[in-house]
Amino acid sequence: MKTIIEPFRVKSVEPFRMTTRKEREAILRAACFNPFLIHGRDVMIDLLTDSGTSAMSSEQWAGVMRGDETYAGSESFYRLRDVLHDLTGFQNILPTHQGRASERILFELVGGAGKIVPNNAHFDTTRANTEHSGAEAVDLAIPEASQPRNRHPFKGNMDVGALEALIRRVGRDRIPVVMMTVTNNTCGGQPVSLENLRAVRKVCDAHRLPLFLDACRFAENAWFIRTRERGQGGRGVREIVREMFDLADGATISAKKDGLVNIGGLLMIREPGLFQRACNLLILTEGYVTYGGLAGRDLEAMAQGFREVVEDDYLGYRVRGVEYLGEKLLASGVQVIEPAGGHAIYIDAAHFAPHIPRDQFPGQALVCGLYRIGGIRSCEIGSVMAGPGRTPAMELVRLAIPRRVYTQSHIDYVAEACGELYAQRDELRGLRIVEGPEVLRHFTAKFAEI
Questions:
Q1: How many Å apart are CA 211 and CA 269, to the nearest integer?
Q2: How far apart are CA 269 and CA 265, in angstroms?
Q3: Around Cβ 154, how many Cβ atoms within 10 Å?
Q4: The predicted structure's pLDDT at residue 1
Q5: Which of 49, 117, 256, 420 is most exposed, with the fewest beta carbons within 10 Å of its own?
Q6: Partners of 136 in the beta sheet?
Q7: If one looks up domain 58-308 in CATH, what number appears?
Q8: Pair type for strands 93-96 and 265-269
Q9: Does the pLDDT of residue 2 top 80, yes or no?
Q10: Distance (Å, rounded) from C-alpha 185 to C-alpha 224?
């Protein structure tokens, strides 16, 4: 059927204000052309991020009421631990307040000056935490990842040959860990194949290197493995998820994505010595090891979210809904990263606005245009996010779709607004940064139109 039916009923609604074009122009200027600085009340459709923006289920809200707020040894933690052990096989599990907290702990322990951390593609906080430790973050995505029209089914894969070449060039002693981001956010929400994960694991074994997953969107990645990878179609999602984690020595997870919650993260480590050091650091900066900076009610919501995220009905609806938006945009002439990823559609901003040079941030110009025309908040993934001195492979705008929040009519509205803006694309103007930090500048930078 053509209609995408949401596998849930709406039990509560959150109204938003319908702003006018004139109001949005004033709001955008007051926010110095940075959507992160716009108040949530002034956004109609919020596609800034899929992180922490999910709608929780009735069972998750029931879990909130069951939450055990005991400081040490909370029953809510043990319920979460049991769910995760059953799903991933990991026994050493630490809760954190969100994924970047897990990254900070990990790289404070394994990073440092002179170290090099390879990844298929680091996302913003992973790169920042790696480099904050003094280490160098190196991206090793396959060439197809930077080709928007290439419909390779697993454009999130790591270039295994490039990984081997890096190890030979710098030596294994300088590489504390190999990271794999599943799905690959920077490259368009693209999945990593099981074949590629196995190949990277083989290289790590040969050189005695630990492999860690940045597994924020592990369930969406597993769905793509089942639906796109040869020989995987007959397997269940949970079975594929378990093999993905069995290939890893550890993982950082922002539960604000595939955990279907508004706050929470995880750090999972197999090696007992490293895990104990992580426990000590977690107590120092996050909280005790059975709550990790979270309330018991948050742990309960996470436990239920990790149960729900691997359900076929949910994942089928989730991935098809994102794909639907991509199809609508392509039909209107808007070039996006093909094929659609799991959590977002990425517009090729360089193709959308070829008259705006890279140093005038075409992605940020498109972000501003979408807010002006439709009250839609989105996020630049390009030269602004990359930071000074870096030239990203692509200039993109991410339309990240919150889980279980928007209906098909909302997505139709987004597609219509993008098509209308595309028809007026020659009116988009470049931007310059007038104020901003050196690291993670996209969050707080202020811009002026050129």
A1: 10
A2: 14
A3: 22
A4: 67
A5: 420
A6: 116
A7: 3.40.640.10
A8: antiparallel
A9: no
A10: 14
Q: What is the value of pTM for the model shown?
A: 0.95
What is the rounded distance in angstroms from the CA atom of residue 228 to the CA atom of residue 221?
10
Query: Which among 145, 234, 217 has a CA at the least distance from the CA of 181?
Result: 217
- Name the residue among 301, 239, 304, 208 with its Cα closest to residue 89: 239
| CA separation for the pair 337, 19 (Å, rounded) | 30
* Cα–chain center distance at 266: 15
Report the C-alpha gap between 420 and 329 in whole angstroms.
11
Per-residue pLDDT averaged across 146-169, rounded?
97
What's the rounded Cα separation, in Å, for the pair 48 and 362? 17
The answer as to CATH 3.30.70.890 being correct for domain 21-50+311-449 is no
Yes or no: say if 132 and 107 are a contact pair by the CB < 8 Å rule: yes
**Bond before 437 cis per omega within 30 degrees:** no
For the chain, the average pLDDT equals: 96
Q: Please state the domain extents for the chain.
A: 21-50+311-449, 58-308
Q: What is the pLDDT of residues 109-151, one digit of tens each?
A: 999 999 999 999 998 899 999 999 999 999 999 999 999 999 9
State mean pLDDT over 272-282: 98
Query: Looking up tokens 């075409």, which residue turns up?
Result: 362
pLDDT at 176 over 70: yes
